[in-house]
Write a structure and sequence with these properties.
This protein is of the alpha/beta class. Helices cover 35% and strands 18% of the residues.
Length: 295
């Protein structure tokens, strides 16, 4: 839908207010910029503007928003930062506080979850029907947060849950796993692979994620989607692709397998393609070249 036009209920897209919770994190800044360029009125909220762990503060923040506002929920204590019982509990508290504060004022919500909810060795290919079996505190917290939001808000407003693998693409200095690999290879530093490098992974360009979020904000729906490219690659091939993009030979070393790491991740993205018409996931090489070109 073009900016300035109206959605199915006659609301002007240019007048729609969207709050991005966690706008200073890995994906938040890029989402804010993307939505602003498409004429949404975007309000970012990090812990400074709205500490999601403080229920009264969340209630106050949401009361100041116009009725019918949308929410893109990015805030999280990431597993790379801390994967502990305390972090899991805090992630669940944040989801609960948002769900309770949204009440009857929020019009729609998009929650960015994780494929960690499927655990370390799900049956392949992974679909939206794959049973969750989280093994990490982070994955347990994500699954519980999904359920809290759906149980509290799902009967009143459209709640979309997006389960994400690795997302990359704002710039090479970002905090994603792929950007970490790019920096290591660019600077000719050693990259350690735990295992033999044959484990399959799927990384999504943040631009593609933004297109999915945009579609769900324009046409709010209750959906559960795995957002992936559907083209998984062995980790060692991913690193060689990054080296080819950078015109550097990766300096690889192999360590003992990490027993806590997920096994192969292969996704059937049929549901995603049906829900978001016209979405063509960006290949890894094209995506990496695009972020290297960004300032």
């Amino acid at each position: 839908m073009e900016p300035g036009k109206k959605d199915s209920v006659g609301t002007s897209i240019a007048r729609r207010q969207v709050v991005v919770l966690g706008h200073t994190g890995t994906m938040g800044p890029f989402l804010c910029d993307f939505l602003q360029r498409r004429k949404f009125r975007v309000r970012g909220a990090s812990s400074r503007e709205c500490n999601l762990l403080v229920r009264d503060g969340v209630q106050t923040f949401f009361r100041d928003l116009e009725p019918g506002f949308g929410v893109v929920f990015c805030s999280v204590i990431n597993r790379w930062k801390e994967d502990s019982f305390d972090a899991m509990t805090k992630n669940m508290v944040m989801a609960e506080n948002v769900a309770l504060a949204a009440g009857n004022r929020c019009g729609f919500l998009v929650y960015l979850s994780s494929v960690d909810v499927y655990g370390t060795s799900p049956a392949l290919p992974i679909t939206e029907w794959t049973l969750p079996n989280p093994r990490s505190y982070y994955g347990i917290g994500k699954l519980a947060s999904e359920r809290l939001l759906l149980r509290t808000l799902g009967e009143r407003i459209p709640v979309s849950v997006l389960r994400l693998p690795g997302v990359y693409g704002a710039h090479v200095q970002e905090r994603s796993t792929l950007a970490h690999f790019l920096r290591k290879i660019r600077d000719m530093e050693r990259v350690t692979i735990f295992g033999d490098g044959t484990v399959l992974r799927d990384f999504v360009l943040v631009d593609d994620l933004c297109e999915v979020v945009y579609d769900l904000l324009v046409r709010p729906r209750a959906l559960l989607l795995n957002v992936a490219t559907g083209s998984s690659l062995p980790l060692i091939d991913i690193l060689r692709t990054l080296g080819r993009v950078l015109q550097r030979e990766p300096n690889l070393e192999f360590g003992s397998p990490d027993g806590n790491s997920a096994g192969n991740l292969v996704f059937d993205i049929s549901a995603l393609q049906r829900a978001i018409s016209g979405l063509r996931p960006t290949s890894l090489e094209v995506g990496c070249r695009s972020i290297l070109a960004r300032p």
